[in-house]
């Protein structure tokens, strides 16, 4: 894929965040990796969606050096690059501050699987990470945020739970490409809203029974999946 094509796909994915009401002002960013070229395209830092153009997308290498672009990349670039380096099954990453997912992050609570909508897309809870230490915050903060996420996935396949909430911060999602990572960001916000409403109606609402959780996840994602038209 040429840099022009890569930047166009990343631009369109970033614009979809606004179309889905997942961001306001300059909040949020989307990236995509070209593993053959060893580069990542990502939204420029602090540029509004109203004025951003495809050519504004910045391309960096896996050492966070700018390869192409006249603007500074997103301040979250080191987090994105760390995820690509550690999760070799992913091709796109999205970061938002969408309302309900961020509320769970601020409460520092994982989102329990309370129903089949959640189970259709995530095999288990949506994890809230541990807190960063003061030393990590005052060090290489964005890199440490990436490490904070990957530490939560030491015993978990990233694509079995392509969404996480960072304690005190906000959500990150990923997918096979930038577009799918945005799709997962939209799903996360809806799942987070449903979970909030459920726990508001019944603070003691129990998690979905494991057999139903497994059934709903595996009929879409397992080796014997039968949902859809293939």
Characterization of this structure:
The structure is a single chain. The protein is an alpha+beta fold and 230 residues long. It contains eight helices and seven strands. Strands 4-3-2-1-5-7-6 form a seven-stranded antiparallel β-sheet, with helices on both faces. It has helices at residues 3-19, 77-86, 99-107, 116-119, 134-137, 141-151, 178-201, 210-221; strands spanning 29-34, 39-42, 58-61, 66-68, 92-95, 163-165, 171-175. A hairpin with a 5-residue loop joins strand 6 and strand 7. Helices cover 40% and strands 13% of the residues. The two termini are 26 Å apart. The model has no long low-confidence stretch (mean pLDDT 96).
Q: Which key terms come to mind for this protein?
A:
230 residues; alpha+beta; seven-stranded antiparallel sheet; 8 helices; 13% strand; globular
Number of strands: 7
Determine the structural class based on helices, strands and strand pairing.
alpha+beta
SS field, number of helical segments: 8
User: Which ranges are low-confidence, i.e. pLDDT below 50, for 5 or more consecutive residues?
Assistant: none
The major beta sheet can be summarized as: 7 strands, antiparallel
């Amino acid at each position: 894929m040429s840099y022009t094509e890569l930047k166009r796909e990343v631009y369109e994915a970033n614009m979809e965040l606004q179309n889905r009401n997942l961001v306001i002002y300059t909040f949020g960013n989307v990236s995509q990796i070209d593993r053959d070229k060893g580069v990542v395209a990502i939204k420029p830092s602090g540029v509004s969606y109203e004025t951003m153009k495809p050519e504004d997308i910045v391309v960096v290498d896996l050492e966070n050096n700018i390869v192409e672009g006249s603007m500074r990349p997103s301040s979250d670039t080191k987090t994105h690059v760390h995820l690509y380096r550690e999760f070799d099954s992913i091709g796109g990453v999205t970061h938002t501050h969408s309302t309900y997912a961020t509320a769970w992050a601020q409460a520092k609570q994982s989102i329990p699987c309370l129903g089949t909508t959640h189970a259709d897309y995530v095999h288990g809870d949506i994890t809230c990470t541990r807190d960063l230490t003061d030393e990590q915050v005052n060090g290489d903060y964005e890199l440490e945020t990436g490490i904070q996420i990957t530490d939560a996935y030491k015993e978990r396949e990233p694509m079995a739970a392509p969404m996480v909430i960072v304690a005190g911060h906000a959500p990150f999602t990923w997918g096979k490409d930038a577009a799918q990572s945005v799709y997962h960001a939209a799903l996360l916000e809806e799942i987070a809203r449903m979970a909030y409403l459920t726990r508001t109606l019944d603070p003691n609402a129990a998690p979905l029974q494991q057999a139903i959780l497994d059934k709903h996840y595996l009929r879409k994602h397992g080796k014997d999946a039968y949902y859809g038209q293939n």
